[in-house]
Amino acid sequence: MACYQSLSQLMYLIGKEVCINRGQPGFIIGRLVSIQNDYVAVQTKNRRILYYHSAYIDSLSETRWKRVPTNYSQEVEVIMAPRFNELLSSLLHHQIQLDIGGPQVEKGWLTRITADEVVMEVNERSVRIPLEQIRYTVCEC
């Protein structure tokens, strides 16, 4: 991420509404709920937790309104793991959504994780996705 040595420098933003610039058309706005070694967890207004890999974040900043967000539920379950690949391991056998760049989003059951890829069951077929292509995940739990 530009101009920050590490994500830990952004700890002061936890609980605040942030904007994630993804380096592609569009951005994500939500309440920052967790910062880990190589990903952040952001709660969207529809109560979903989005786990965004830091390699795909161009910038992360507080929204221009700089207020404590009020439209977010305080009672959401956040899955915690020190690293993104460990987070994915904790989602094994869960229904998830993976953004792998562009308009392509895969939804299905996470069935296997290796050092290089994840395998999902999508519409009764196995889909292999290289780990380095995964921008973010959402658990459909």
What are the salient characteristics of this protein?
141 residues, ten-stranded antiparallel sheet, mainly beta
Describe the model.
The protein has 1 helix and 10 strands, in the order βββββαβββββ. It has a 10-stranded antiparallel sheet. The longest helix is centred in the middle third of the chain and has 7 residues. The chain starts with 16 loop residues before the first strand and ends with a strand. The mean pLDDT is 87.
Question: Can you summarize this structure?
Answer:
With 141 residues, the protein is mostly beta strands. Helix content is 5%, strand content 41%. It has a ten-stranded antiparallel β-sheet with strand order 5-1-2-3-4-10-6-7-8-9.
Low-pLDDT residue spans: none
The helix-strand sequence is: EEEEEHEEEEE
Tally of extended strands?
10
Q: What portion of residues belong to β-strands? A: 35-45%
What global shape is seen? globular
Which structural category fits the helices and strands? Answer: mainly beta
Share in helix: under 10%
| Radius of gyration (Å) | 15 Å
